[in-house]
Structures are given as structure tokens and as C-alpha cells.
UniProtKB/TrEMBL annotation:
One of its GO terms (cellular component) is methionine adenosyltransferase complex. It comes from Drechslerella dactyloides (Nematode-trapping fungus). InterPro entries: dTDP_dehydrorham_reduct (IPR005913), NAD(P)-bd_dom_sf (IPR036291), RmlD-like-bd (IPR029903). The lineage of its organism: Eukaryota, Fungi, Dikarya, Ascomycota, Pezizomycotina. This is RmlD-like substrate binding domain-containing protein. Pfam families: RmlD_sub_bind. It comes from the Eukaryota. Residues 4-259 form the RmlD-like substrate binding domain. One of its GO terms (molecular function) is methionine adenosyltransferase regulator activity.
Length: 283
């Protein structure tokens, strides 16, 4: 009998690849999303179902778990948009912290493995401090990072079968606006028509493909459902090994797109308070 998994945020940039990775590995997949969504892109006659579920409603979550009876729940859903985080701090905390706490409680009572997707924004990124070990002291540089750090504490404290996976800046197949890496393609095409675009060239990032993260999540699910979890680490980190600044990302993309970037100028002046450097989890 196939194992079952629930993926929250299943229609997002990462969630779509997580659904696909588990589906292709033979798992029976159920996804949740904020809005009704018909999942396309699968050639199978019976694609994974995507359901509209309020993750803050204990009755809805409990009903979902009791009907699906999964071995694993992968919690990808989160509020990460800087604007929405700033404009709706209460709603952001509700999704990033309280809904995560509720999922931990509901999965723990049913002996379901919970994998919580977190971020490297639980660390402040002080120049020279990275790379961070998984057990390093956290110090989020912004509100988003604080909510994800508190979400980690909520799930690890709420379930002895919860695992945290921290990931960095992500990119992958989808609309350009879904990822700050993808968005840079619009900059290279210079859709704004600017003569000169200053691009940060000092902060090191590790852009990571969502397909790779999804594969790792599937491996974690299989490992942690076949091994005594008490013998395994509860906080994990995964990223590409490729180090680059935003300007270097542009250089790489320009080669792929075969487009010049003479309008993009490298800015190597260190400014941790500049817009987008310390308060934008997408860049």
C-alpha cells in the first residue's frame, strides 16, 4: 500500500515541486491551498487532489488528517511577502506560528511525521558569520525571520515527531514574480527601460532549486518514517553549494539568456540597512 502525504501550500513555488516529487515516488499525495485550485501538469489519469483548507481551524485540520490518514505532513504554507508581513502582522503570525503550532498538535496526536519548512532568515547574516551550523544560535534580522523562528519552536515543542528543514533563497519553474531569482530575469531583459540599474554585489547567497529541495524532503520523509526518530536530528539545513551575490546571479542568468547586462552595475558597498538586504526574505 502506498504511503500517504499531505502538502500544505501545495500550489506555491516549492509546494508544486514537493507534490510532484512525492507523486513520482509513488506516494499518495493530498495538497492544501488557500484557494480552490485545479492542479494541472500531471499526465496521470488521477492527479493529486488539492483541497481548500483553513490551517488555523482545528476542526478542518483534524477532519483532513482523519480522512486522509497520512504518514507525513509537509508544511510549506507560509507568509513570506515583505509587504504582506508588514501590512498584516497578525495574519502573518497566525499562519507562520499559530497554524504551525496547531498542525504540530494535530499531527502529534495521530502519530504523523510533520516536516516544517523554515528559512535561513532565522540567522542575521552578519558578514563573516556564515556558514551556520543547524544548532547555531538564531537571531532573525526581520519580522519574517522572527515568525519562522517562532514557528520552529512551536512545532518542535508541540510534537516529538516534528522535523525542521531550513532552506535559503529558492528558484524554480513558475512565474517570475514567485522568486526573487526569477525576477532578476526581468531586470536582465530591462523591462523597466532604465539606463543604469545598481545591483548588490557583497552579500553571499546560495540560490537553491525547488526540485532539489523537494527531492530532499521526500528522502527525509522516507528516512524519518523508517527509522527511530529519537536517533535522528530534529533540525536540518539544505542548500546549494553555489555561492553568489545578486550581481553574480545576474551574470549567470545573462549567459543562459544570451543577453548583455551592460545596464546593470555592481554595487559592492556593504550596507546591511539598505532596502531589500536585511528585510526581504525573497532576495
Amino acid at each position: 500500500m502506498a504511503k500517504k502525504v499531505i502538502v500544505t501550500g501545495a500550489t506555491g513555488l516549492l509546494g508544486r515541486q514537493v507534490v510532484r516529487a512525492f507523486d513520482e515516488a509513488g506516494w499518495e499525495v493530498t495538497g492544501t491551498a488557500v484557494d480552490e485550485f485545479i492542479y494541472t501538469g500531471f499526465s496521470r489519469a488521477k492527479p493529486p487532489q488539492i483541497l481548500k483548507v483553513n490551517l488555523s481551524d482545528g476542526d478542518e485540520v483534524g477532519k483532513l488528517l482523519d480522512e486522509v490518514k497520512p504518514q507525513v505532513l509537509v508544511h510549506c504554507a507560509a507568509e513570506k511577502s515583505p509587504d504582506r508581513c508588514a501590512n498584516d502582522p497578525v495574519g502573518t503570525k497566525q499562519l507562520n506560528i499559530e497554524a504551525s503550532r496547531l498542525l504540530a498538535e494535530q499531527t502529534a496526536s495521530r502519530d504523523v511525521l510533520l516536516i516544517y519548512i523554515s528559512t535561513d532568515y532565522v540567522f542575521d547574516g552578519t558578514p563573516g558569520a556564515a556558514p551556520y551550523e543547524a544548532d547555531a544560535e538564531t537571531n532573525p534580522p526581520n519580522f519574517y525571520g522572527e515568525t519562522k523562528r517562532d514557528g520552529e519552536k512551536a512545532v518542535l515543542g508541540g510534537s516529538n515527531r516534528a522535523v525542521v528543514l531550513r532552506v535559503p533563497l529558492l528558484y524554480g519553474s513558475g512565474e517570475n514574480h514567485e522568486s526573487a531569482v526569477n525576477t532578476l530575469m526581468d531586470v536582465i531583459w530591462n523591462k523597466s527601460g532604465e539606463d543604469r540599474i545598481s545591483m548588490e554585489h557583497w552579500a553571499i547567497r546560495y540560490p537553491t532549486n525547488t526540485e532539489d529541495v523537494a527531492r530532499v524532503l521526500k528522502d527525509i520523509a522516507e528516512k524519518y518514517t523508517t527509522t527511530d526518530i529519537s536517533t535522528l536530528p530534529r533540525t536540518l539545513q539544505f542548500s546549494s553549494e553555489d555561492r553568489c551575490t545578486k550581481y553574480e546571479i545576474c551574470e549567470n542568468l545573462s549567459q543562459v539568456l544570451a543577453l548583455p547586462i551592460s545596464h546593470i552595475v555592481a554595487n559592492d558597498k556593504v550596507d546591511t540597512n539598505s532596502s531589500g538586504e536585511s528585510n526581504n526574505p525573497d532576495i
